[in-house]
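Build the 3D complex.
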Amino acid sequence: MRTGYQDIKDHILHQIRSNVWTPGTLLPGEIDLAESFGCARATVSRAMRELVDEGILERKRKAGTRVKSSPTRRAQFAIPIIRTEIEDTGAPYRYDLVERHVLPAPNWLRSRLDLPESASVLHLKCMHYQGNTPYQFEDRWINLAAVPQAESYAFKDIGPNEWLVQEVPFTDGNLEFSATNATEDIAAFLGAPVNAALFTVERTTWLADVSVTFARLYFARDYKMTTRL
Amino acid sequence: MRTGYQDIKDHILHQIRSNVWTPGTLLPGEIDLAESFGCARATVSRAMRELVDEGILERKRKAGTRVKSSPTRRAQFAIPIIRTEIEDTGAPYRYDLVERHVLPAPNWLRSRLDLPESASVLHLKCMHYQGNTPYQFEDRWINLAAVPQAESYAFKDIGPNEWLVQEVPFTDGNLEFSATNATEDIAAFLGAPVNAALFTVERTTWLADVSVTFARLYFARDYKMTTRL
DNA sequence: AAGTGGTCTAGACCACATT
DNA sequence: ATGTGGTCTAGACCACTTT
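Done.
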């Protein structure tokens, strides 16, 4: 069998794991490695490039390739559609629209989404259930200038999360994870005591230079988001 | 200038963003695209492969390449060394060891780390400050069977996080993000009211089949972890 | 100036999933 | 059986960074 880029990745990882190549170590150059593996330089190159992507190695021209000293391993996690996430647990998914209003964008939202003073937004409050258990409370704001068709959509059966994903492409976004003490309102919706610590995700998405939507997602008590390193 | 893989990525992303290629659309094959761009197939291949890695496209042999219908874009975030994270803000970093004990592993930890009944662990409580402001309370458990040299290390000046990163390689790990109500103890350390919602990270790391360490990190109030999509 | 990684090419063969 | 992506090669030239 021929030596593939995956074999080289494995070999490098093995050297690191067995402490042969410790953080900071300078690895042999691509040409040397290619020779010792008996493969083309491009193959070594791909292996090393992927290890850089995975946060294991650092490369600089002329300086060579080193084992990253603070292995800033990048955790990746997917942002699933909530319906899928719940259905994957085997439980039925249920969605409820709690409130729906069109209104002028409040100031805090205007500054967050960089909206003009005249901006009009659609504000939705929704509940997502796992079976009969409250799962997430969604506080969603949609920029009607960017997504005018949202104004005529009821969101009675399909949540804004899912609808937006299908309807509107986006180019950029950011996520903020934090913890929030449950207000009376939200506590009631989620069936949690007032002041319970809730895992909270705030998400903003943009289509090029235009902000599309902002959402605050409050998860039920004891929710944990998990990811692998 | 020659057409590079980055140009092709940009072009594909542009088609998607301008709704020419909507979710589900079948893209031309590599050979066709290579011809229309006037480049080698390998170049197109790399562009598409990276877009798959980024969660934009889906590929299946024989079936071709499609725009992913539920753009499960993967958020990536780095797990920095806390000292670096703080120093990057411009503020000085301060570390304090609060408690340090060697003890038999409690049951909950044994089951979490898959430790034998006789296992002995090092338990540390530490505080991390940003300037004089409490930043994070760290509750750390180290498997002394995996890291015997920890027993003789004082952790007075360097935190276990940083020490472990330099000292012990790891192969796997997982992260859990959640929200916790501050207990009296932790509230005092972090200067927060009792019951304040604290963003919490639980991290387990393994070296092959041996568990290395488990940590609970409680962040100060209002901490937000941010990442881009 | 020189050495390293970064990218591209043109061609080849392989592996897999559908037909 | 066929068509698609997946990978590899051998060589070339470029770009960056250090000396």
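The radius of gyration of chain A is 24 Å.
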